[in-house]
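Methods — Computational structure assignment.
A single polypeptide chain was analysed. Its primary sequence is given first, followed by the predicted tertiary structure written as structure tokens.
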Amino acid sequence: MKTKLIIVSRESPLALAQTESVRSALLAIHPHLSIDILGITTQADKRLDVQLIDIGGKGLFVKELEEALLDGRADFAVHSMKDVPMDLPPGLILPVITKREDPRDVLVSNKYQAIFDLPSGATVGTSSLRRQTQLRALRSDLNYVNLRGNIHTRLKRLDQGDYDAIILAAAGLQRMSLEHRISSFIDTTYSLPSAGQGALGLECRDGDAGLCAMLAPLNHLVTQYIVMAERALCRELGGGCKVPVAAYAEMQTETTMLLKGLVANQDGSVLLRAQASDSVERAEKLGRDVAATLLTQGAADILKAFE
């Protein structure tokens, strides 16, 4: 049995907090372990002057961490699942998905309580094309401006008056004990989350059975099925992090889930929606089925515009 592990993580405050939570949970199960964290500042974290879509999408947040796994510098990585590309590099697997936190987007503002309270022309900051397109459909009269950086950087920009409001993921603020900054939660009817939003994934080398056995108690089976369905939808559409595709699954009964999918065009004037239910054991098929419905509605033509 292994006695020492190295976890690789982005060096952003949120990523390190998430990784530390995994480290603590693992130590509670395996107190004999020695666990170190290898922090890496990724290219996506360094290049904050350009839109993420222009430099390769959110996959850049995990690429260098995966390289550390493949060359043996680390044993496993902790990722926000919404950042993980739909297809993993050969030799790597995602055996563990932790219990999902709140998957919703939130509005953060020092002046306004909700998205409907913002005056026409108000400046809203968000780095997510998925969020922008859906909110444009809801409030086309607002001024949406790209905003990148870690949570504290974004909040600072808001506090110094650069934005009237910013849109963030609830889970990130909750994990950083910043719930008090949330002005309101945005219902999934208005802003369908990104696939995997709110869940953490543990990635390691394929074939490391001993490590997988050690990590297994951290897996949350319901979340794993849910994220599987959401990612299957995005994979079928060819939609990674560069296009406005949303996917959100939730349990209906103890054994069945409802999956909602969305594809939007650039300005939010067209929103294609589809949903279906199925057994959790058919999560992958459910994702493919909802994607197929979106394709019959014309999703492929919309997505081509982002190529």
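Note: The chain has a mean pLDDT of 92.
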